Amino acid sequence: METITINGLSTRASRIALGTWALGGWMWGGSDDNAAIRTIHAALDNGINLIDTAPVYGFGKSEELVGRALADGRRQHALIATKVGLDWRDGKPFRDSSPARLRRELEASLRRLGTDVIDLYQVHWPDESTPIEETAAVLEEFRREGKIRAIGVSNYGPAQMDLFRSVAPIASVQPPYNLFERESERDVLPYAAQNNLAVLAYGSLCRGLLTGKITAATRFEGDDLRKSDPKFRQPRLTQYLSAVAALDRLARERYGKDVLALAVRWLLDRGNIVALWGARRPEQLAPVNAALGWSLDERTMRDIDRILDETIDDPVGPQFMAPPTRERISPEAVQS
Ligand code: NAP
Known about the structure:
Elements: E1 3-4, E2 13-14, E3 16-19, H1 33-45, E4 50-52, H2 61-70, E5 79-84, E6 86-89, E7 92-95, H3 99-113, E8 118-123, H4 132-144, E9 148-154, H5 158-165, E10 172-174, H6 188-194, E11 198-201, H7 236-255, H8 259-268, E12 273-278, H9 298-311, H10 331-335
Parallel strand pairs: 3-4, 3-12, 4-5, 5-8, 8-9, 9-10, 10-11, 11-12
Antiparallel strand pairs: 1-2, 6-7
Helix pairs in contact: 1-2, 2-3, 4-5, 7-8, 7-9
Bound molecules: NADP nicotinamide-adenine-dinucleotide phosphate (NAP).
């Protein structure tokens, strides 16, 4: 496993981390608890020690599963990254990073995770209704109290990170980042490089698109978010699938690898980056090793950009996933 230093953590983190959103089932068409636990164990067996979760993933379920999977002594071999700052009512999330909410969330997460300290505590989304400095001050208190080891932010821009860092140190930032979603290259990645922040890239596999297994005939079940993901809808889907096919050919011809290994390797070669790999069955982690121990040359990096330019006429980002602010949901719902 390749590893990285995250400021504040004494153990180096694996550069591939397990993403556990799908384990909670919500927005992924359900999940299977037994397979979820085995997936977490498979991650650790594959050399992955960083596990990313959040209270909102399955409304507590993902954190509980992480806690259960680590309860048999494995906790000491894992780094837990969870999040704070999203509340929910009736299955609908919204942003809330107010100090009172943060305290309640911390205690609930510690309980679900079955631990007395969270390694990396990340603000999930900026909350425009709470001054960022207030959120930062509370997280810094948690750090001083020894309840969290390091602070991260997610979906923050540079100006928001500047405000936060005027009060508390940030060790990491978690933006969406993969071969098809590169908006963070404009500002977040340069900011992270300048300020020595680790980048935890989410959606590394573009929700499965970059694994090569999605076809025009693939159907999703229940509340699976890919039903409304604009990349998985025509006419864009055909463009993205052409890109996947061309990238797969390139990976095979040049490196004897497939598009999944290429997509993860590409991320790891872009900077001080950890690739968050979402999985819900152990066998989905079997290809982890194929992404490690090699790197892409400059010519391939250029050829990848050319393929993307030639195949995707109408690119679209991951904005469809952004949760509403407190103002945009009904006041009654927030007060209840
Ligand atoms: P992802 O990693 O891009 O894709 C995950 C999906 O890819 C899996 O659920 C699985 O889908 C498929 N997959 C994984 N391995 C595979 C394999 N070997 N072969 C075929 N298919 C495979 O998406 P993500 O889970 O959204 O992102 C990763 C993590 O980032 C999340 O779990 C979460 O921890 C984090 N995240 C954070 C934010 C944020 O706002 N901070 C937002 C999104 C995600 P199926 O099981 O359906 O086949």
